[in-house]
Amino acid sequence: MAMLSYTPPTSPWIETQFEDQDIIVVNKPSGLLSVPGRAPEHYDSMWGRLVERYPEIQVVHRLDMSTSGLMLLAKNKQAERSLKKQFQYRLTHKVYYARVWGTPSEAQGLIDLPLICDWPNRPRQMVCYEHGKPSQTYYEVVKSEQQTSIVRLFPITGRSHQLRVHLMALGHPIVGDEFYATPEALAYSERLELHAAELTFYHPSNNQLTAMFVDCDFYPQATCVAVDHFQPPLALPDYRTLPKQ
């Protein structure tokens, strides 16, 4: 599916949450690509803005264009290798907030549905029990509203569009979701109300467990939660146990 129009927000140009000699953590706005698209008019992106200031900047993970929140980038090759390995072995943990249509019947639970690309309708993804890759998301309802609710999300795996498809499959699509929302849920918000609020990783310079948090614009009450807040508890493996390169 081609992008009909691309008008990313420009203010603030870059919202930095943390920076040192090895990494930079930014708050990517909804509507901005993580990396440049194929067409020249889709060059503007979080990486494209940062590379003007940091020529060696490297992307180690991505957020969907419509998703806002924390994005971690490496400022040198050593940091890039360390962080990419952590994402590869699922040593990084993320916490998202979403406003969904309706309220799940269970206040918390595990969504365990295999996902695969819906090739005729890409970039859409779909549930497929025969060929899909294992995909798990913990969710927790934190606020019930008149037509919607706020859920806190902890993705165990990191499949494309995982949170969006899992919540749609649960019967509660994220409002403003141009791919998976019902007409009512799509019309409810001008943006996809999905925000990456928290990111936990091992700092590449000293292997210290590091947690970052950024406020959620559509749910200001969001707070930083510990990884073991979720049930069952999910502990980060020791960084030193990673396979050697």
From TrEMBL:
<comment type="function">
    <text>Dual specificity enzyme that catalyzes the synthesis of pseudouridine from uracil-746 in 23S ribosomal RNA and from uracil-32 in the anticodon stem and loop of transfer RNAs.</text>
</comment>
<protein>
    <recommendedName>
        <fullName>Dual-specificity RNA pseudouridine synthase RluA</fullName>
        <ecNumber>5.4.99.28</ecNumber>
        <ecNumber>5.4.99.29</ecNumber>
    </recommendedName>
</protein>
<keyword id="KW-0819">tRNA processing</keyword>
<dbReference type="InterPro" id="IPR050188">
    <property type="entry name" value="RluA_PseudoU_synthase"/>
</dbReference>
<keyword id="KW-0698">rRNA processing</keyword>
<dbReference type="GO" id="GO:0160151">
    <property type="term" value="F:tRNA pseudouridine(32) synthase activity"/>
</dbReference>
<keyword id="KW-0413">Isomerase</keyword>
<dbReference type="InterPro" id="IPR020103">
    <property type="entry name" value="PsdUridine_synth_cat_dom_sf"/>
</dbReference>
<dbReference type="InterPro" id="IPR006224">
    <property type="entry name" value="PsdUridine_synth_RluA-like_CS"/>
</dbReference>
<dbReference type="Pfam" id="PF00849">
    <property type="entry name" value="PseudoU_synth_2"/>
</dbReference>
<feature type="domain" description="Pseudouridine synthase RsuA/RluA-like">
    <location>
        <begin position="22"/>
        <end position="167"/>
    </location>
</feature>
<dbReference type="InterPro" id="IPR006145">
    <property type="entry name" value="PsdUridine_synth_RsuA/RluA"/>
</dbReference>
<comment type="similarity">
    <text>Belongs to the pseudouridine synthase RluA family.</text>
</comment>
